[in-house]
Amino acid sequence: MVTVGTIVWLSSELMFFAALFAAYFTIRGVTPELWELETAKLNVPFATANTTILVLSSVTCQWGVFAAERGRVGRVGSVFQVGKWGMREWFVLTYLMGAVFVAGQAVEYVELMHENVTIPSSPYGSMFYLTTGFHGLHVIGGLIAFVLVIGRTFMARKFTHEQAISTIVVSYYWHFVDVVWIGLFATIYLIQ
């Protein structure tokens, strides 16, 4: 039931982001010359590197799920033996990569503010910060979920099926956040 509920909830989140995409393209269609001017200020190589980190974090998250499905909550060897990592190690790595992504977004916001791309400066600035900001809040929500799942494994005496299910549910959310970002990245940075 938790898995089905999560999928239904993520469907509603998909509708929310679909509305943001619709608003983005509507405002872009009304002021195309503004988009040409403002998108030239984007640091596409930096955003590409940041996107790569987020996408790779989805891979590490899934490896954590595989470890949880095998019942391996923690590593069985040295920390340098990646093949023997458990769910905790993979989720900690995923958390760190997600945190780097959020920090990268913050750096990009500061750079764009110096270029006078702000929420009140133009419709472009409003849509850029609205879409990427809401996505960033979703990433932070995922980071909180990782901390809760990892913390729960330390609190419990035994790694249970329910904990494995919560690991899978968190991975659904994280993969969703990644897929939404790929769409946003293509829309904002590549379709100029």
UniProtKB/TrEMBL annotation:
Database matches in InterPro entries: Cyt_c/ubiquinol_Oxase_su3, Cyt_c_oxidase-like_su3, Cyt_c_oxidase_su3-like_sf, Cyt_c_oxidase_su3_a-hlx
Gene3D superfamilies: Cytochrome c oxidase, subunit III, four-helix bundle (1.20.120.80)
Keyword terms: Cell membrane, Membrane, Translocase, Transmembrane, Transmembrane helix
Keyword Transmembrane helix in annotation: yes
Record field: transmembrane: 7-27, 47-68, 89-107, 127-151, 172-191
Membrane topology value: Multi-pass membrane protein
Record localization: Cell membrane
Pfam families named in the record: COX3
Enzyme class, broadest EC rank: translocase
Residues in Heme-copper oxidase subunit III family profile domain copies: 1-192
Reaction(s) this enzyme catalyzes, per UniProt: 4 Fe(II)-[cytochrome c] + O2 + 8 H(+)(in) = 4 Fe(III)-[cytochrome c] + 2 H2O + 4 H(+)(out)
GO cellular component terms listed in the entry, alphabetical order: plasma membrane
Enzyme Commission number(s) from the entry: 7.1.1.9
Molecular functions (GO terms): cytochrome-c oxidase activity
GO biological process: aerobic electron transport chain
CDD domains (alphabetical): Heme_Cu_Oxidase_III_like (cd00386)
PANTHER family: CYTOCHROME BO(3) UBIQUINOL OXIDASE SUBUNIT 3, CYTOCHROME C OXIDASE SUBUNIT III
Family: Belongs to the cytochrome c oxidase subunit 3 family.
Name of this chain's protein: cytochrome-c oxidase
Taxonomic source organism: Solicola gregarius
